[in-house]
Amino acid sequence: MGFGQSPGPLGRCYDATALRSADVAQKGQTHVWSNPLTNTPSIIQYQFGAWGQYMPGDGEMYCAPTSLVMGLHWLYANGFTQLEPAPFSNQDDPDTVNLERVIVGLVNTSSKAGTTRTAPASTSTGRLW
Fold this sequence. Notes:
Layout: E1 5-8, E2 11-14, H1 16-26, H2 36-39, H3 63-77, H4 94-106, E3 109-110, E4 114-115
Antiparallel strand pairs: 1-2, 3-4
Helix pairs in contact: 3-4
């Protein structure tokens, strides 16, 4: 097995941290993860747009997707640049607004009920995860 690989129930699994470390080591750099407390962008779920107009329901129920977007921005700043098209610039940046909308759809967030663990009735499993 190669560096960053480990056996798993589905065959080879890749450890993203080990792969990232290997990538940095090949470039001769020393990588230190930035402190998430000071380097995670502060995105307020109900302030997408001056009055929240960029999200349905003014984003009032979007706490889960917004926290995921903040985490993705932090990961981008720490070298996982394939996760986003560009670094975080501000909350109303079209890339950030689009990423929020994509995550809202992926985690099945409703502007009225928020993010729940149940999927729409049209799914066969009845579960989101």
